[in-house]
Amino acid sequence: MEQKFPLPPFTRETALQKVQLAEDAWNSKDPQKVSMVYTKDTVWRNRDQFINGREEVVAFLTGKWQRELDYKLKKELWSFTDNHIAVCFEYEWHDHTGNWYRSYGNELWEFNADGLMQRRLAAINDVPIKSSERKFRDPEEIILAC
Length: 146
Known about the structure:
By secondary structure, this protein is an alpha+beta fold. It has one domain (about 10-145): Roll (Nuclear Transport Factor 2, Chain: A). It is built from 4 helices and 6 strands; from the N terminus they run ααββαββββα.
């Protein structure tokens, strides 16, 4: 049986752990790895897209990270209950022409008893930014920028 700890019902501590694990997984930019925290029949609404099942998650994330280059994400726990977690997040990325964006959003997560996410609802807005306005720089970029 597949399980992803921590399991519901969530406490503040375990909800924070779940959010950090999600942030780390998405920042890996590995669609296969990320897909494994979702149920096989997971249901998503991501902006205006509806995604069903792990295979569609992998295809969606593969395309996302081919378009959204140098992607860096930060998630924050907003609230939680027994098997639900709400997060707000922001991430930065650039397109193939070098235009930078900061994307802001909120997600609602629902987990099954085994700690796998069975439903994810995401609302996201993109804001164009200048490279100099980036918040999420890699340490080597900060050194080079000085």
